[in-house]
Amino acid sequence: SMTRHGKNATASSFYSYHERKRDAKTSGWGTLHERLGADSFKPFDCCSLTLQPVKDPVITPQGHIFERESVLEYILAKKKEIAKATKAWERQCEAEAQKEKEESNAHNDRLLKKFNALEGTPAHPGAKVDLSQFETPRAGTAAALLSNPLKRKSEGGLHTVPMEKVRAKGDEGVLSNMSDGRSKQLPSFWIPELNPTAAASKLEKPNQKVLCPISSKPLKLKELMPVKFTEAKADEEVGHHAIKSKIRFICPVTHDALTNTTKCAYLKTSQSIVAYSVVEQLLKKEMIDPINNKPMKESDIIEVVRGGTGYASTNDVKAKLYRPQLELQ
């Protein structure tokens, strides 16, 4: 008998979960799912753009911390992109308006030409008829035009096809794009940009607001608030343990170390980052800032977005990559 791993564990009679995941990843089809670890998230005291420790930090109303210089550069760059996209969209609107105007003028010209041709028929007394524009492939056509001037097959009158252009029904050249020198007139089929059927993609009106790259909420310069961190000293103790070198900041009230696992809050009145246990005490008692003794409201408290811990209770650890779905017929 063959051992369990005799064929590298590929002799099972069913399509296993791991085989299905492996094939889905290498096939290029279907949505990929990945669970992110703690090393996929930045520390809470780093800029959300540069991912580096902050020197002059600011915070958004959603609790995301940025370096002031980085977020200002981001806002300026986005405003330039929006202005450029807006100009392109305005040029497109002007081109569409010009095209509509030309089509309207052409339509009016056709109506005027049709009206002049109608008024020039013998059905109206005193009008002169110019029958030279009508060819008479068969007898009775001119008489039909005189008797019923409205019965015309085109706006410019009857147009007949010269006999040299007429082909037999069995001639294959009738359906060919390459006959009569048309092969040099048509652009390449294999280049979509040169194909007459390929229309340029229509631009949408760009959003005029700069959005936060993390929360996708409007990012306004006047809403950014400065942040004051309380730096930890090397010889200071937290509880029974000395502060380690990797801990940079502490709570100014409780002197607890602020790490990725610590739930923190920002107080607008004192512009400080404190542990959330201080906020819980404030909500239970009088709403007074413990740092500068100023009265507070609940809107003056912003929960700071924490860094990576690898736990779903703290961060959204699931990531998705949307790819085309293969439909089975």
Account of the protein in words:
- The protein is α+β, with helices and mostly antiparallel strands and 329 residues long.
- It is built from four helices and twelve strands; from the N terminus they run H-E-E-E-H-H-E-E-E-E-E-E-E-H-E-E.
- The chain has a three-stranded antiparallel sheet with strand order 3-2-4. It has a three-stranded antiparallel sheet with strand order 10-9-11. The chain has a two-stranded antiparallel ribbon with strand order 1-12.
- A hairpin with a 4-residue loop joins strand 9 and strand 10.
Largest beta-sheet details: 3 strands, antiparallel
Rg, Å, rounded: 38 Å
Pick out the low-confidence regions: 133-139, 151-161, 163-173
Question: How many individual helices?
Answer: 4
What percentage of residues falls in helices of 4 or more residues?
Answer: 10-25%
Task: Estimate the mean pLDDT confidence.
Answer: 77
SS elements, strand count: 12
Structural class: alpha+beta
Strand order of the largest sheet: 3-2-4
Euclidean distance between termini CA atoms: 40 Å
Order of helices and strands: HEEEHHEEEEEEEHEE
Shape: flat
Strand content: 5-15%
Organism: Pristionchus fissidentatus
Keywords: Nucleus
Domain Nitric oxide synthase-interacting protein zinc-finger: 5-79
Main location: nucleus
Element layout with pairings:
Layout (H helix, E strand, L loop, with lengths): L16 H11 L4 E4 L21 E3 L5 E3 H52 L21 H7 L77 E2 L3 E2 L5 E2 L2 E2 L6 E2 L13 E4 L4 E4 H9 L16 E3 L14 E4 L8
Antiparallel strand pairs: 1-12, 2-3, 2-4, 5-8, 6-7, 9-10, 9-11
Organism: Pristionchus fissidentatus
Family: Belongs to the NOSIP family.
GO molecular function, one term: ubiquitin protein ligase activity
